[in-house]
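hey m, so remember when u said the tokens were messed up on ur end? i reran from scratch. heres the input so u can diff it against urs
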Amino acid sequence: MSNYYSFVAGLPEIQLLDAKAYHTTFSIKESLLETVYEKDWHLLSFYYGKFDNHNLLITLDLVKGEWDERGNYSEAEMKEMLTGFQEEDDPRTIQMPSWFRRFIPAFQTNEALFQNMSWEDQLATVYYEAGMKCSNRYIADWFEFKYQVRNMMTAIQCRKFEMDRAIYVLGEDEFSMKLKTSNAKDFSVAVEFPYVSQVQKIMDMPNFYDREKALDALYWNYIEENTFFFYFSLEKIFGYLIQLEVIERWSQLNEEEGMAVFREFVNQLKSSFQFEDEFSLKR
């Protein structure tokens, strides 16, 4: 196991309630590239891969937004990657994340990887699946936890608003299928997923801003508990990045902006289904 004593020892200590971090996930990236071994950077790049996902969706005109510089690939590299899939005789020679290798040809040929699922959610699904197959057990467990929390939240919302869980819950693994089909209060996953009650309490919070804070606290505490016995290793760095992102996000977001995010979220939902009167924002 690689030891990064000097690098980890030099990281400023951060707390959940910190108003501002000394580093950002972007500024620390250059130091990581200069410090960690290539095999370890491959593992850390899974963290930055979600920003690549955002940038890929922008490049494919599937979402609107600004390019996220935290990704592993530049705009030019992303476009070159897509062009290579169309022109190269053997696209396997093109360097790219494994989940891109599944997603891009499916999108270009309009052959869905998962039925009844948006392209954005299909990309998220193959990203989580790749993360859960990661050779590092700590990172794989984090991806599984995040995936399960996200799906649990989706299942709870679908049940609340009488939406089809089979469409919105990601994946076809055993855990996901239970969320899609079970009528039990805990979706019959309490044994394998001990965080059920915590997620349910978070989703019961009426204020979206408070819900987001509680969710980030859940992620933060998971990292604290599962990184306890890792001291100066790759796992410690990976957990630090996740916690750093939490502080980074909240240092840029006040309550008014949090409610703006909520309103945007509601508008997106309203475009896909009709709210019952009791959930009307005009009341």
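this time it looks ok to me. The two ends are 58 Å apart (CA to CA). if urs says something different then somethings off w ur setup not the seq
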